[in-house]
Amino acid sequence: MALYSDKVFEHFRNPRNVGIIENPDGVGEVGNTVCGDIMKMYLKIDDDVISDVKFETFGCGSAIASSSMATELIKGKPLAEAMELTNKAVAEALDGLPDYKMHCSVLAEEAIQAALIDYYTKKGLEMPEELKKAAARAAAHEE
Amino acid sequence: MLKTPKKKMYIYADNAATTKMSPSAIAAMVVTANEVWGNPSSLYTTGQKAKEALEQARKNVAQIIGAQPREVYFTSGGSEADNQALRSAAAIGAKKGKKHIISTAFEHHAILHTLKALEKEGFEVTLLPVHAEGIVRPEELAAAIRPDTCLVSIMTANNEIGTIQPIRELGAICREKGVLFHTDAVQAVGHLPINVAEDNIDMLSASAHKFHGPKGVGFLYVKKGIPLTNLIEGGAQERGKRAGTENVPGIIAMVTALKDAEAARETTAARLTVLRDRLIAELSRIPPSALNGDPVRRLPSNVNFCFEGIEGESLLLLLDDLGISASSGSACTSGSLDPSHVLLAIGRVHDVAHGSLRLSLGDDATEEQVDYIAAQVAQVVEHLRGFSPVWRDLKEGKRQFIL
Ligand SMILES: Cc1ncc(COP(=O)(O)O)c(C=O)c1O
Fold first, then answer.
1. Which chain B residue lies closest to A33 (C-alpha atoms)?
2. What's the ipTM?
3. Cross-chain Cβ contact B332/A57 below 8 Å
4. What are the tens digits of pLDDT across the range B290-324?
5. Kind plus residue range of the DSSP H or E element containing B325
6. Residue B174 half-sphere exposure, CB side, CA atoms within 13 Å?
7. Residue A34 and residue B351: Cβ atoms within 8 Å?
């Protein structure tokens, strides 16, 4: 059968870093209920390192697994590394996603970027180029 | 985290998708393959034995649906029967310059996609609304029929929400106006009483795998005098209207299953209706949620709910872990971007349509199974709502409840 890889199933059944962070340093929400997936990421940042991350997701099995895996990949990592997380890396870490589910990994990447953008904006810090581009893409999405 | 049930049960609750073949249908299939394997078109005894079995099967089907044997055509299933019925009626209409077809917004894709193809060929299609209750209103059909209407096609029972249409009344309107009436009865045959004569039906599609027969076999009933258009050209099988050496073992197995289903129909329906209503009552205790489709005019086996704040695919996967096979109208399970067209047709918005669950009970369902299903659905919905940002927003008043 194998609708998904064992890794996807494992993360879906036992998602890591589920929940919220009170007073997060950055929070990002992407997706909408029309398309059927919403991901929300909460970040705690200390000394330019992601000291904690939590997520909430409304979506299918691969959306939940992608969120879970994405949080694992950035937890304890420096900001510079976190903002370079790609959807491909998330999908690969999950031993692959079906083609028509790749958008779930994209959503995970975007949710993390949205949370980082929120952090830089709230702090009044200059955003790195990497994030500026992501912010521009997100703004284009909104329209 | 989900609790492992004290006693794990395995429950197949997706009988609208397909049913398990009955032991008698399997036995009939094997016996036929072993003993009646000739080609019904051959003139020697081995062939003629197959021909006899085939014609006996046709008689049995005809008798069960109130038709003449020559009005029954065996097909490869419901999709083929639907395609052929629509194509045939369209060809008849086109000859008379009538190119308007009426159907409904919540038909199976075998109907809707054929209508789309006919539209490209110059037909005009009107899809009647089915309203919140999932039922066509006869007066709206009467009002939609035009002088150039050549066909009305309305399903007997819907495959997702199980709602039953007033077929006899709809058929009577078509008769009165002289328009051909087809019904996709794939979900109804073997489960609901059907008599093509009394119900004013001109064409009817059925599929064996929905009543414990094999997959890949079905039939099309066509009232005498309505010329069929071939989808498959070739030999003279099925009165020249459907070429290909007949699937004799499949057809015999189908008829065996149909006879069994008919014999048990009323008792099964009565028993399932009680269980269905019990399950509906139990699932209503997981608010905000709502039953999809009319609570009474629905198949005895069908329960379909929307749960707000969760998504259907994750619900199905976790139910599978707990031993329950079910289905959903969420986009993620359909492989498309939109949730089920049926749920949209009864007015469910995308947000809640994604959180739908269809449970279609088996003939052997028990009270214990229904209670197990309700308990597991409750715990899975609660688990998923527990980390759903949508649910948080609903609870915190940042988002309006829809259900
Ligand atoms: C209402 C309805 N029509 C048509 C079909 C298609 O039947 P089949 O699978 O035999 O082609 C189905 C079953 O999937 C159905 O539920």
1. B351
2. 0.95
3. no
4. 999 999 999 999 999 999 999 999 999 999 999 99
5. strand B324-325
6. 25
7. yes
